[in-house]
């Protein structure tokens, strides 16, 4: 049974397919037969009462998978229509073989004329892995018709129009109810714009010779809740607050004290033993009223900062920091202090203005901040989230959490981690401040930068999912604090 936590790029998926086909000695027909049957079984499982379906079949091997599925449906007594693009007959030997088998079983295909038939289910077998550009012409029209149809769609391997490598959607793309991946999980289907198109993701690993998988390496690792037990074991009975670390949060400029408060409270809820805050004088009273556990310090001229830095195990800087002279002075002192850092928000924007390596730091940019750090556009970051995260890690010699739907955690010479949790309700101001505190709290407890970043991002996302049980709209960052504490003690979870 394959490891479902491993994610692969398109090159690896194609190499596996080619190698397995060569080892089988049948040109790949046995794999296509398996894929088409798996697709039919998936359809039956998801829509057992479906009596009619249409299969949108491309000219390549993804279309061949669709023809095999259509043949099984026909033989099971279902009403089946195969629809092709005008003038695009099956073009590969395998697709031709599958189309011939469908015809021999009594099936027929029609060209798309702008309309799709009424059916219980639609099957997308148009492009699969084979598309790396925006669909155009009749292909675009066909995808738009699929999305407009009331029939739910099963996508074979990849929803047509989605970049299976990076998760981008360069043009139109099929919005599937279920996506059945073949052989491996495709990394691009777990992040970015792809999440609006994949629906439920399933895997048909197919029966491959063991030799086919040798030397094929994953390009990312999917992280879910079960990772927390190894990262956050129960504390020993005879512990003390110093063992859980001292976090210093620096931020909260005029009008932005709440950001520093949320980061501070999140660090404590994630398990930090001690918490200090350096902020504007005007915020100290409100902070102590909200969080009496914090040691709040007014930093007006920066004179008190060195003593605070000396006592801290980890420093989190950025929430509510701003970019004025006060912020710049604090930023320069913190980045030169030699402590492990968590850098967020305006601290990232200041770093982008004077780029330099920050070893042992954790950077937590959203796509806009990542673009400024890389000197590119936000669209370029989103078009290649894995590559952008890794480029940041290499440029700044740091661990990076590229935030967003399907956050990507990268570090030099490490396999990237994909955070498979979170929800749209978390797209609200203040969520990033909370994440900064969570990561700093874990780092203070002794986790290395990569584990603290990935574990913190996962803990934060899971808390968001728990808090959104009553609905995503209207979710507030502080709603995460209660489930955060529970989730930070995974030994108490069933």
Quick description:
The protein has 494 residues and is α/β, with parallel strands linked by helices. Helix content is 39%, strand content 16%.
Structural description of this entry:
The chain folds into 2 domains: 213 residues, YjeF N-terminal domain (Rossmann fold); 268 residues, Ribokinase (UDP-N-acetylmuramoyl-L-alanine:D-glutamate ligase, 3-Layer(aba) Sandwich), CATH 3.40.1190. The strands form 2 sheets. The protein has a 12-stranded mixed sheet with strand order 8-1-10-19-18-17-16-15-14-11-12-13, sandwiched between helices. Strands 4-3-2-5-6-7-9 form a 7-stranded parallel sheet, covered by helices on one side. The radius of gyration is 26 Å and the shape is elongated. 39% of the residues lie in helices and 16% in strands. It has 18 helices and 19 strands. Helix 2 crosses helix 3, helix 3 packs parallel to helix 4 and helix 17 packs across helix 18. Helix 5 links the parallel strand 5 and strand 6.
**CATH H-level homologous superfamily name of the largest domain:** Ribokinase
Strand % is: 15-25%
Tally of separate helices: 18
The largest sheet is:
12 strands, mixed
Based on secondary structure, the structural category is alpha/beta
**Reported CATH architecture of the largest domain:** 3-Layer(aba) Sandwich
* CATH topology annotation of the largest domain: UDP-N-acetylmuramoyl-L-alanine:D-glutamate ligase
Mean of residue pLDDT?
95
Taking pLDDT < 50 over at least 5 consecutive residues as the criterion, the unreliable ranges are none
Radius of gyration: 26 Å
What's the N-to-C terminus distance? 25 Å
Q: What is the subunit arrangement here?
A: single chain
- Overall CATH class of the largest domain: Alpha Beta
């Amino acid at each position: 049974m394959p490891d479902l936590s491993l994610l692969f790029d398109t090159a690896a998926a194609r190499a596996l397919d080619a190698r397995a086909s060569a080892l089988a000695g049948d040109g790949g027909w046995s794999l296509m037969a398996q894929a088409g049957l798996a697709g039919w079984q998936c359809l039956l499982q998801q829509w057992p009462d479906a009596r009619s379906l249409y299969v949108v079949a491309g000219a390549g091997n993804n279309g061949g998978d669709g023809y095999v599925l259509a043949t099984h449906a026909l033989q099971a007594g279902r009403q089946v229509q195969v629809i092709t693009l005008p003038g695009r007959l099956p073009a590969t030997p395998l697709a031709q073989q599958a189309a011939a088998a469908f015809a021999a079983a009594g099936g027929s295909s029609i060209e798309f004329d702008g309309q799709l038939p009424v059916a219980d289910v639609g099957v997308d077998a148009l492009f699969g892995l084979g598309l790396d550009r925006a669909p155009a012409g009749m292909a675009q029209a066909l995808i738009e018709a699929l999305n407009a149809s009331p029939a739910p769609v099963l996508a074979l391997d990849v929803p047509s129009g989605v970049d299976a490598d990076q998760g981008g959607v360069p043009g139109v793309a099929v919005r599937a109810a279920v996506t059945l991946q073949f052989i491996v999980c495709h990394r691009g289907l777990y992040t970015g714009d792809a999440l609006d198109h994949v629906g439920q993701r399933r895997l048909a690993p197919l029966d491959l010779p063991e030799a086919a998988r040798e030397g094929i390496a994953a390009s990312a690792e999917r992280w879910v809740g079960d990772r927390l037990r190894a990262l956050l074991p129960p504390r020993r009975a005879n512990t003390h607050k110093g063992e859980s670390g001292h976090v210093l949060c620096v931020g909260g400029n005029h009008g932005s004290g709440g950001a520093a408060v949320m980061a501070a409270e999140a660090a404590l809820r994630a398990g930090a033993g001690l918490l200090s805050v350096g902020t504007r004088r005007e915020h100290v009273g409100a902070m102590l009223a909200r969080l009496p556990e914090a040691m709040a310090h007014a930093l007006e001229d920066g004179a008190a900062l060195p003593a605070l830095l000396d006592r801290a195990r980890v420093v989190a800087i950025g929430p509510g920091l701003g970019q004025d002279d006060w912020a710049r002075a604090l930023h320069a002192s913190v980045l030169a202090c030699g402590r492990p850092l968590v850098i967020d928000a305006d601290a990232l924007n200041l770093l982008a203005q004077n780029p330099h390596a920050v070893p042992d730091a954790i950077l937590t940019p959203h796509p806009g901040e990542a673009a400024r750090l890389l000197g590119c556009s936000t669209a370029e970051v989103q078009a290649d989230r894995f590559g952008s995260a890794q480029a940041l890690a290499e440029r700044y010699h740091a661990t990076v959490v590229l935030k967003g739907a399907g956050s990507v955690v990268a570090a030099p010479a490490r396999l990237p981690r994909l955070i498979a949790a979170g929800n749209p309700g978390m797209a609200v101001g203040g969520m990033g401040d909370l994440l900064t505190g969570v990561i700093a709290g874990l780092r203070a407890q002794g986790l290395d930068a990569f584990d603290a970043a990935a574990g913190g991002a996962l803990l934060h996302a899971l808390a968001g999912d728990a808090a959104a049980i009553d609905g995503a709209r209207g979710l507030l960052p502080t709603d995460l604090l209660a489930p955060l504490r529970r989730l930070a003690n995974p030994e108490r979870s069933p």
